[in-house]
Amino acid sequence: MATGNDVSGYNCGQVEALRDVINTTAQNAGQNIVEILHNKIIVPMSSRWYAPEAVQFFDGFKQTVAASGEAITQAFDGFRASVEAAGANWAENTGGQSPVLAAIDTVVLDLNTSEILPDNAGNVTIDESGASQIASSLADVEQEIKEDLKGLAGQLNAETAFIGHNQASSLQECFVEVSGAIHKVFQYLTEGEDSLQSQINKAVQKYQDVSEGISSAFNTVNVDGQ
């Protein structure tokens, strides 16, 4: 069948097949996100911050990441609904069959934080410069998530589903934009007083303040008892 610029239309079965492509992209995106967060944040922090509060802190971060799965699921499912609506539009205008695309499966973000330990051979410490360096790199982590999402979305091929007049390329470009925008869900890495970046920096400052306060207290102890 010719599919040049002078041929336009749609293929109901191929439109429906896009659901699995979108769903696979969503699930792969979720897996890649937790892998990036684990490798770029959890693993390096595990050798720089040993404390019961570190374990508690990253347990909380794990829950924050998990909650992001709902927003990601909604974003991909919104695109799925748009594809279904486009197919329905063709069906209405041509008398053809209207495609049905099942909802996207829930994207589960299960971040492994098991490397974060309460102490290191009894030492409860933070590597101040190392932790600060990780905090300053979080913008790069967010950017990596964005580029990974866009790369996955760029693999969508709709040429056989929506035929002619750049429908397929426009659909793909839209998918890339939708996927790339998902990185904004992870702005809690760097933005605001409660961001991961801010909280790590606050922890570093607290450990500095406590150590300096104790040092000062020892320096003012009167050993003569007077």
Task: Give a topology summary.
Elements: E1 9-10, H1 12-46, E2 49-50, H2 52-94, E3 125-126, H3 128-136, H4 138-153, E4 162-163, H5 167-181, H6 196-219
Antiparallel strand pairs: 1-4, 2-3
Provide a descriptive summary of the structure in words:
By secondary structure, the chain is mostly helical. The chain is built from six helices and four strands. The protein has helices spanning 12-46, 52-94, 128-136, 138-153, 167-181, 196-219; strands spanning 9-10, 49-50, 125-126, 162-163. The protein has a two-stranded antiparallel sheet with strand order 1-4. It has a two-stranded antiparallel ribbon with strand order 2-3. Helix 2 packs antiparallel against helix 5 (167-181), helix 3 packs antiparallel against helix 6 (196-219) and helix 4 (138-153) runs antiparallel to helix 5. It is rod-shaped, with a radius of gyration of 25 Å.
Defining traits:
226 residues, mainly alpha, two-stranded antiparallel sheet, 6 helices, 4% strand, rod-shaped
* Average pLDDT level: 91
Radius of gyration: 25 Å
**What does the main sheet amount to?**
2 strands, antiparallel
Helix content: 55-70%
Number of DSSP helices?
Answer: 6
Class computed from helices, strands and strand pairing:
mainly alpha
Shape annotation: rod-shaped
Measured by DSSP, the beta-strand proportion falls in under 5%
Order of helices and strands: EHEHEHHEHH
Q: In total, how many beta strands?
A: 4
Cα-to-Cα separation, first versus last residue = 101 Å
Strands of the largest sheet, in order across it? Answer: 1-4
In the predicted model, the low-confidence regions spanning at least 5 consecutive residues are none
